[in-house]
Each structure stands twice: as C-alpha cells, then as structure tokens.
TrEMBL record:
It holds the Pfam family RibD_C. Gene3D superfamilies: Dihydrofolate Reductase, subunit A. It comes from Cryobacterium zongtaii. This is Dihydrofolate reductase. GO terms for biological process: riboflavin biosynthetic process. GO terms for molecular function: 5-amino-6-(5-phosphoribosylamino)uracil reductase activity. Residues 4-170 form the Bacterial bifunctional deaminase-reductase C-terminal domain.
Amino acid sequence: MSTVVMYSSVSVDGFIADENDQPGPLFDWLSGGDVPVDESGAVTVSQTSYDYIRPYWDQIGVTIVGRHVFDITDGWDGMPPGGVDHVVVVTHRPKPEGWAAEAPFHFVDGVEAAVATARELAGDRIVEVAAGDVGGQVLAAGLVDEVRMDVVPVVFGSGKRYFGSVHAQHLLEDPDVVIQGTRVLHLRFRMRR
C-alpha cells in the first residue's frame, strides 16, 4: 500500500506562503545549486539536496491538492507537476467547464475520498499531500504516514500555515532524516501511531 506524505517548503515559523499566496524566497533553494534536478535544467540544487529529493520525487505517483492550489496554478495546464502521474483535487465545486476529460486530474469531495482515490491510483508509489489547509485536514483525519519539510531560513510572520488550521496536538516520531542543503534543511518525520 502507498505511503501518504505531507510535503512542502516552509519558513522557519511554519508558513508555506504569505497572505497573498506568494512563496517569496521559499523556493530559492531550488535554484541555488549547480546540480540539475531533471533534463530541463530549470531546477538546480546542491548535490546534498539532489541526493535527498530526487529519489523521493521519483517515487511520487499522485499529488493531492485543494481547489485553491489548482485554481492559482491554472491546473498546471492539465499536466501534473514534476512528472507525477495523477493529481487529485479536493473540491466542493465541479471541475472547470471545458476541462479536458483525458487530463489525469480527479475531482473529489472530501479528504477521505481524496486519499482513497489517490491510494488506488498510486498503487505502491507515494501519495503526496500538499501542505496547507487540505494537508492539515488529511493530518487531522489520521491519514498522513509521514511529514516532510524543506525548511528555508526565512521568517514570514504571517501567511498560509504549513498545517493549515489544525489546532489539535498530533505527535510525530523523532526526525529520521535531517539533511542540510544550501539554504534549506530537509526533515522527515513519521507519524506516531
């Protein structure tokens, strides 16, 4: 069965974007190295970051996002980001009018349905859940297996929180991965069951 991973770059004070949905310097580490992540060469990271993120990214079969992320990215023009096979969009609204039926995007109502759909589509590959409101809902539902963070040395002060509006306590195991890259600290925590 697939592993469900909540993932994003995050400020040291826990934000994935500012109040205007802008990531600011959160993705600067993705252009701060000399090792291309793929053939396009658009993303370059340090060797240390590459050695950590490339194997992880290669295992992702499905990404779960909320409708807000889908809308602000214009649905990635119908092409899942980063070579992912499918995107599951959590939404209470129908898919956009004129949306290409053959695009590998699945619109579902509720996080439980999203995780079930994503697990079916992913097989034994990773189901990635975008951090933020939807990620927080998946965490609160007890459906997250691990949390991965790329912590960037910046303080936002306010904005969109990594865990969304989660207000209850959730215990994680000690970090089993702590890797320092250039302008980023990669962390991985398994959820305590």
